[in-house]
TrEMBL record:
Keywords assigned: Acyltransferase, Transferase
Single GO MF annotation: acyltransferase activity
N-acetyltransferase domain sequence ranges: 122-258
Enzyme Commission number: 2.3.1.-
Highest classification ranks of the organism: Bacteria, Bacillati, Actinomycetota, Actinomycetes, Kitasatosporales
Pfam families (UniProt xref): Acetyltransf_1
Domain of life: Bacteria
InterPro entries: Acyl_CoA_acyltransferase, GNAT_dom
Name of the protein this chain belongs to: GNAT family N-acetyltransferase
Species of provenance: Streptomyces griseosporeus
Enzyme class: transferase
């Protein structure tokens, strides 16, 4: 895999030519900024910008005015190769808060193991209805320690509007959900996106995460997606590297709360 070539493809397909990630959302292109605007429970933010030092501050102010005018909290995703080089500092000066950085990791779908089984006693179940979404949210809240109400509504919206564009799976042991993950499959794109992947504390380190990656990789291969991408936190990066993922750059969320 040519890292520079794949990163350029990612920038074009998933950022500059991004598709809305759910019903009620729209992609807007204003000058040298690409943003998604949607309902309050969805993801609102800047996906790509082609700024220079002369125009960066004005563009930042324009995005703040847009989203605050709608009463929306929003995120500006800054990648390690974005310009100007001090974009993050400019965002902080404008009132954004930087969250922990993540690694943008990509793998060729065919190179990722597709047959890694779940540990003994753990079943992987597809999520197709509100009850299944409830299990995903239960895992999310236990694994990440935050409120899952926005995730609940977003996933329900996605399953209702375009069930073929999202895959959700929950791992169950002894009748209780212990891990869950999602995958977004944007139509016409080369990349399938892996999201979630959280495991409740008592079940970590047993191979469930690897099984969930394999499960989604198999589906992505069947659907014809040549690449998988994931924004990886520190604890999942070593696992993903062993599964064939490579770090292409970093991404840092900068969040603005009106």
């Amino acid at each position: 895999m040519d890292h520079a070539e794949v990163l350029a493809l990612y920038d074009r397909e998933m950022r500059r030519e991004a598709r809305p990630d759910g019903p009620g959302t729209r992609i807007e292109r204003t000058g040298t900024v690409v943003r998604q605007t949607g309902p309050a429970h969805g993801w609102n933010g800047v996906l790509w910008s082609g700024l220079d030092e002369a125009g960066a501050d004005a563009a930042i102010a324009e995005q703040i005015a847009h989203f605050t005018g709608l009463g929306r909290e929003f995120e500006w995703k800054v990648y390690g190769h974005d310009r100007p080089a001090d974009l993050g500092k400019r965002l902080v000066a404008a009132g954004f808060t930087a969250e922990p950085w993540e690694a943008l990791m990509v793998a060729e779908t065919a190179a990722v193991p597709h047959d890694t089984p779940a540990p003994e006693g753990v079943r992987l179940l597809p999520v197709t209805d509100a009850a299944g979404v409830g299990l995903v949210v239960e895992v999310h809240e236990q694994a990440f320690g935050d409120d899952g109400s926005r995730l609940r509504q977003t996933l329900l919206d996605q399953l209702a509007a375009a069930p073929d564009a999202v895959v959700a799976v929950v791992a169950v042991a002894d009748g209780a959900p212990v891990s869950a993950a999602r995958m977004e499959l944007p139509a016409g794109a080369a990349f399938a996106g892996l999201w979630g992947g959280g495991t409740v504390p008592g079940w970590r380190g047993r191979g469930i995460y690897r099984a969930l990656v394999a499960h989604r990789a198999r589906i992505a291969a069947e659907r014809g997606y040549p690449y998988l991408h994931v924004d990886a936190m520190a604890d999942s990066r070593p696992i993903l590297e062993r599964l064939g993922f490579a770090r292409l750059t970093t991404t840092t969320p900068y969040v603005y709360v009106p």
